[in-house]
Amino acid sequence: MDLSKLKREDVKAVEDDLAAVLAATIADYEARSGKTLQPAHIERLLINTYAYRETLTRKALNEAYRQQHPRFATGLMLDICGDDVNTPRLQASAARCTIRFSADAAALAGIQTAFIPAGTPVSAGEVSFATAEAAVLTAERPTASVEAVCTQSGAIGNGWSAGQINSLETQPAAGVEIKAANITVPSGGADVESDEDYRRRILLAPESFSVAGPVGAYEYFARAVNQTICDVYVDNPKTADGQPVGGQVRVTVLTKTGMPSEELLNQVREALSAERRRPLCDSVTVAAPTAVDYALDAELVLYTGADPDKVVAAAKSAWAEYEAARREKLGLDIVPLDIQTALKVDGVYNVILRSPTLRVVASGQWARCTSVRITAAAQQQEG
């Protein structure tokens, strides 16, 4: 049995159907009293109330039973399930980016060196980033790039364009003006890990009881780096004749916002390279997936009398739901039939799909929709 397809309502310790509880209660009363009850009897009112309260108690018991299992637990109970396998919930994380410091070489020649300490704040409005390491500027090397971490946790630090984070609160070195600006878009900031993401890691946790040798262990340790990681693919390079290369491991990481940043990839590399995390002989490569871009261009042939605006709006909504379910997965093929099925909402007679065509996507690739065009055909059909 595939437990991943098990429905929550099917997992129960006792029967909690109201009709079944009511029927059993009536039958028990009739057996004990020797009286056949009719719907209008006063005893039925009391029995109805009792059966309702009994059903609520049984439903609560069943829910308490479900909360003991990580597949169905929520909130604090899921945290307790994670504690059983030494897997705490990931707390809110801060965004990271790379900031480049620069100064005039002639000005640096007069003071020889300008030291930029770790923790130097650089801000964009009310959002501030602090450098994670120190840097030194000299006349021979008037620029230096260092990683910086947002001082506020959560998504607030994500998405700032290159160059927007450029305000130095104080000049770190006297005698020379130092400029700073981010050269990468900050990412990786996230709120506390959601139940669904946390549940996935708890179910993977037994893989971590080994070093990162099994595929599941590499996936577990990669996901544990940051809750923005939504999919991980682990494989190893192949020789020309298709044989796996021993000792070579390739980890492909996808995030909820798409391609991972270099800062996040560095975090995953560090997590997978710890002495106690991977076999000594493994050489690990961490990379972003290869994007397989495609454009959606569909024309909807409608039934006679259908409102084109409403049908197209419904088709766009259906497409957004279909694409959202695929956005956080690697290796999903681009199948025109699936797309046509998703777009065939009420009022659509036929879907003419001009793009994309059938395309097989490898496990380490990511199918990415870059543009959407959904229109209604001029002619309608009776059907």
TrEMBL record:
It comes from the Bacteria. Residues 211-288 form the Baseplate J-like central domain. Residues 294-374 form the Baseplate J-like C-terminal domain. Residues 99-189 form the Baseplate protein J-like barrel domain. Transmembrane segments: none annotated. Pfam families: Baseplate_J, Baseplate_J_C, Baseplate_J_M. This is Baseplate J/gp47 family protein. It comes from Neisseria animalis.
